[in-house]
Amino acid sequence: MTVIQNWLGRTPLARRRALWGLALVAPNTVGLLVFFGIPTLISFATSLQEWNGLRPPAYIGLDNFERLLRDEGFWKALGNTLKLLLLSVPTGVVLALGLALILNQQLRGRTLFRAIYFLPVVTSTVAASIVWTWIFQPRYGLVGNLLEPFGLRDTNWLTRPDLILLPIAIVTIWQRLGFDMILFLAGLQNVPRVLLEAAAIDGATRWQRFRHVTLPMLSPTTFLVVILSIINAFQIFDQVYIMTARTTRGGVGGSATTMTLLMYETAFTRNEFGYASAIALTLFVIILSVTIIQLRLQRRWVYYESDQG
Amino acid sequence: MNPTRDNRPSFLDRLSLLDRLVAYSVLIVGAVLMVLPFVWMVSTACKPSSELNRLPLRWIPEEPTCLENVRSLNETSPDFDQYLRNSIILTVGRTVGQFITCSLAAYGFARFEFPGKRVLFAASLALLMVPFQAIVVQEYLLLRRLDWLYTFAALIIPGIFSAFALFLLRQAFLQIPIELEEAAMMDGANPLQVLWSVTLPLSLPALAAFAVITVQAAWNDFLFPVIVSNSAATRPLTVGIALLQGERSTPWNLLMMGSLLATLPMLILFILLQRYFIEGVALTGSRR
Predict the structure, then answer these.
(1) Amino acid A193: pLDDT
(2) Do B134 and A228 touch (CB under 8 A)?
(3) Which residues of A touch B214 (CB under 8 A)?
(4) Does residue B188 sit at the A interface (CB-CB below 8 Å)?
(5) What is the DSSP code string of chain B?
(6) pTM value?
(7) CB-CB: which of B12, B219, B269 is closest to A124?
(8) What percentage of chain B reaches a pLDDT higher than 70?
(9) For a FRET experiment, which of A253, B6, B55, B286 has its CA 20 to 30 Å from that of B18?
(10) B141 contact A CB<8A
(11) What value of ipTM does the predicted structure carry?
């Protein structure tokens, strides 16, 4: 009894406060542990099993990972995910930065513009993807008709394996732009005016001020935006699921299957839970590495900033 | 916060006429591209089926049939009302639940000393690094073992625990001067009473940001509901309209009406509470 008492605190008041504290944090902590912590740990075990979800699981060592290396479908999904990343992240980040730079000026109506650019962010990805599927339909679709002068009206963007990733990347950029833009706008608040003014007085052109003052001071934000966009790209699921629903889920010949979709299909249409866990774990390791790189480098930047201030 | 931040007017703010012209042109072109899909969605949602396959395309339907289309949507998809109801239950359940568990935990971590505090807090935050996609298979297996699959419990309960909301609310509570809480304690209030009558009312802006982030995430959630709901009894709108989309026979005007109805609540919420959405982004960004 006394051991527990001393463990909680030395005075009666401290002990009572400690009990309150434990009681307050208990529901969320236990819930997080049960619904997120334990599944994370179990996924390591499941990835070493062969399991169709019905019969008892069989331990098969690293066979799932070996199979992963030989699985063409996996490499294709990884390739598609990386292609989507390359199609969407650089363009998205540059557009978001450009818009933020303009909206950072003293312009009338900028709150309205900011709201308009943010609208797609609050829209459900499912609804947005349905709308864009309609927009990309051949013959009666909006995009085809706008591009009619180039002879693209009857192009079927969503069934052609060489084109399908483009519409998916466009939806992704469209939906993410406002989010990234707001992060850049927040970052721009931290670029010291004094420096920009001093540079201007010294005769620096607008481009030079941007290149040598704004861009370096903004680098932590840019880095954050890039990292968050990369992580987002690795998780793309809704867009592909919806935009390929009317043809073959994942696109003709798996031309649009991303890693998350592959994992979903492996687990929930093929009932291969062990193999799906191995895919999930691979995805996890990739995203975690990106996050860790970010945390490492961010620490350096935070230090750099406080060093200056 | 930041010593270098300042908002005084500067000569840099003076823009030439050409500058303004270029800036507005870019902004307007961009804004049109952003809004076009919404306009096309509304336009198609109000077209009769006879106008869908007609060229050249028309932005304004010749004979608008908005309400008729809502009716035919209900005929094509008799469960649509129930999907809507399920989405509301899911969203309210997760938001209220998260508000309770996370404000209690945030208050505990912000104001109390107890053994294991650092470890428990670090463990909670570490979970921020686990993407949901990576554990969704295990989550399904866990809920199956609990025999919760295809119930509201499966849709709501895992969603009422959050490391992100814990972090966000704890930060907000730490900003509040502790003297105010101590004064209430002196008057004999217990911690729950202090939290309810002092701490929470003083954290309203953070609570509003928390609420819009949570509501929006719950309303738009797809990957999880598509796995743990299998009938109209619990299926939310996102899954409902995805099913409609999968049926090749569903005409586009009804699909656009379905998408419009699924989008409208969040658009209205955004227009009313814009500020908190935008603050929410800055918070989401800073969590990492």
Answers:
(1) 85
(2) no
(3) none
(4) no
(5) --TT------GGG---HHHHHHHHHHHHHHHHHHHHHHHHHHHHHTS-GGGTT-SS--SS-SS--HHHHHHHHHHHSTTHHHHHHHHHHHHHHHHHHHHHHHHHHHHHHHH---TTHHHHHHHHHHGGGS-HHHHHHHHHHHHHHTT-TTSHHHHHGGGG--HHHHHHHHHHHHTS-HHHHHHHHHTT--HHHHIIIIIHHHTHHHHHHHHHHHHHHHHH--HHHHHH--STTT--HHHHHHHHHHSTTS-HHHHHHHHHHHHHHHHHHHHHSHHHHHHHHHHHHHT-
(6) 0.91
(7) B219
(8) 94
(9) B6
(10) yes
(11) 0.92
